[in-house]
Amino acid sequence: MLRHLIKRLQKVKANSIKAKSSTHLKRLLVPPQAKNKAVSSAAEEIERKKLRQMATYEKEARKQGYELVAGIDEAGRGPLAGPVVAAACILPTRFSILGIDDSKKLTPEKRAQLFQKITSHPQVIYGVGIVSVEVIDEINILQATIQAMLNAVNCLKNQPHLLLVDGLQLPHASIPCQKIIGGDALSLCIAAASIIAKETRDRLMIELDRQWPQYGFAIHKGYGTPKHVEALTEFGPCPLHRKSFAPVKSLLKA
Predict the structure, then answer these.
(1) In angstroms, rounded to a whole number, what is the distance separating the alpha carbons of residues 165 and 63?
(2) 158 vs 31, residue with greater confidence
C-alpha cells in the first residue's frame, strides 16, 4: 500500500515538473516581436491614461458651458537675450496625440515631433504671440509676457470661451480666465501650448544665431549659461540682449 502511494506521489511530481517545464518553454518560445508589442501596448495605455487625467480641466470647463477652452503658456521669461513667446491652443474634444507633456520635460527631438503633430492636426486651433527685446526692456518681462499671451489669443481664428493660463492671470483679457499653477504639467491644452511656444522660440533663436554666432544662441537659446555669460563678457551685449536684465545691465554700466 505504501509503495503504491509513493509511486503515485512520484508520478504527480513528475507531471508537475513537466507542466512547469512546458510553461517555461512556452515563455521562451514567445517571439521577441510579440514581447515588444505587449510592452508597447502597456506603455501606450499608460500614456492614454495620462492624457485622460490631463484633460480633466478641459472636461470640467465644458461641463460648465465653456465649449472652446484655450490653454496658454509662454517660453523665454528667464533668458538674457531674445524675445518672449507665448502660445494659445484649443484642442478638439477627442484628442489623442500620445506623449504630450510639459515642454521642459521633453527632449528636443520629442518636442519637435509633437510640435509637428499638434500644429498639423486639422482640428487644432493655435496662435502665437511674440514680444521683442525692446518691449521687454520698456515695460518689464512680466508685462511683456502678458502682452505675448494676449497677442497669442488674438491670433486664434476662433475666439475661446475660457482661457486656462499657466501661472498667470491676464488682467486685460475680455475672456474668462483661470490661472493654473504648474498648468503645463496638469492641463492638456496648456501642455500643448507650452510645446508650441518653446519650439517656436527655440527655432527663432537658432535663426538669430546666424546673425550673432559668437554668442551661441543656437545652443543655449539665450539663457544665462556659463558659456553665454563668458561670450557676453568677451564681446559685450548685442541688440538681442535684454538691457534691463543682469548681468547685461551691469556690463552696459561698466
Answers:
(1) 19
(2) 158
